[in-house]
Amino acid sequence: MRTEQIAAKALEQVNNDRYVLANMIFKRVKQLNGGAQNLVGANLKTDKLTDIAMREIAEGKLVLERIEEIKQP
Questions:
Q1: Cα–Cα distance, 61 to 40 (Å, whole number)
Q2: Residues 64, 21: contact at Cβ < 8 Å?
Q3: Among 31, 17, 72, which residue's Cα sits nearest to residue 56?
Q4: How far apart are CA 67 and CA 53, in angstroms?
Q5: 7 near 24, Cβ under 8 Å?
Q6: CB distance 52 to 6 below 8 Å
Q7: CA distances from 72 to 4, 23, 48, 67, 69 (A)
Q8: How far apart are the C-alpha atoms of 57 and 6, rounded to whole Å?
């Protein structure tokens, strides 16, 4: 699947909210950097972590459970 197709499918998974998608990718990349196992069988040494995260979201392996508000002091 091409990158454009993966991005479009990932956007569909988050109701076309680019900000939610960006935050999910950022969070997942941090997890992958920390040693989390990827869910799509990608090679962590040759594939970009952002591409792996987007593929995981596009394939429905990762879903958004909730959004927490940060309380301002």
A1: 8
A2: no
A3: 31
A4: 18
A5: no
A6: no
A7: 37, 20, 34, 16, 9
A8: 9
Angle at 48 between CA 18 and CA 10, to 5 degrees: 30
Per-residue pLDDT tens listing for the chain (73 residues): 788 999 999 999 999 999 999 999 999 999 999 999 999 989 888 999 999 999 999 999 988 777 677 777 7
CA distance 59 to 56: 5
Largest Cα–Cα distance in the chain? Answer: 45
Q: Is 52 exposed, middle or buried (0-12, 13-18, 19+ CB in 10 A)?
A: buried
